[in-house]
Amino acid sequence: MFSRIKEDIKSVFDRDPAARNTIEVLTNYPGMHAIWIHRLSHKLWQKNWRLLARTLSTFSRWLTGVEIHPGAILGRRFFIDHGMGIVIGETAEIGNDVTLYHGVTLGGTSWNAGKRHPTLEDNVVIGAGAQVLGPITIGKGGKVGSNSVVVKDLPANATAVGIPARIVNEKSKSEKEKRDQAAKKFGFDAYAVSADNPDPVAKAIGRVLDHMHLMDSKVADLCKEVNQLGGEVCQEALPELHVGEFDDDEKAAAQRRKTIVDSFDPEI
Prior knowledge:
By secondary structure, the chain is of the alpha/beta class.
C-alpha cells in the first residue's frame, strides 16, 4: 500500500510543477485523497460490502468534491489535478498514467445494466470540463480538449475537441502559409486558432476558404486566357459583400475591395 502511495506522489511531481514537497501533496491534493479512499471502497465493493462501499464513496465526495463510484477500476499513477466536480461512473475503467482535470465526467448514456461508462487506456489526458459519455474507448495517448463532449471511440494518440468532439490534426507548414496568404488577401484572419489547439469548426471553414481561393485562381487563369484570345472579361471589380453586423466602416471596406482587385493579374 505504501509503495503505491509513494508512486502516486511521484506522479504528482512529474505532472504538476506547482507541487513543492511530499507533505504538501499528502495534505493539499484532494484528487489524491479521493483516489486513496476509492481504493478502500473498491475493495469493499469487490467483497460485496456494497452499502459500506457506497457510504465511504459518498464521504469521499463530501470531503474532496470528487465522486468516484466504488465499482470503477483505476490504474496506477492515476492523477486528478485540482479535483472538484469530477464524476466517474460505476463501469468506468481507467488505465495507467491517466490525467483528469477538474469538471470531467466519465458518464453513462443508458439506464441498462452492464458496461455503460468509458474506458480510458494508458496515458490519456482529459481536459477540464470535458464529458466522455457511454461505453466508448479512448485509445492510448489520446487527448480530449477542455469542455469537449466525446460520444465515440477515439483512436490511440488522437486529439479530439468540440461538441460533439471531433478528431483534429495540425495543418502542414505549407498549408498554413497558403491559408495565411489567402487571409491577408481578403483583409482578415479566418484562421484565428492556434495550431496547438485547433478548432474543428474553424478547420471546416478553412477548407471552404481553401476551395474559394483555388476557384479564384482558376477563374483568374481562365480570364487571362480568354483576354489573350481577344475577349474582354473580368474587367469589373468583384461585388461587395454585406453581412449585417459584420460590415466594417466604409474606409476599411474600400481598402478591402482595392486589395481584391489588385490581386488579379494586371494583364487581364
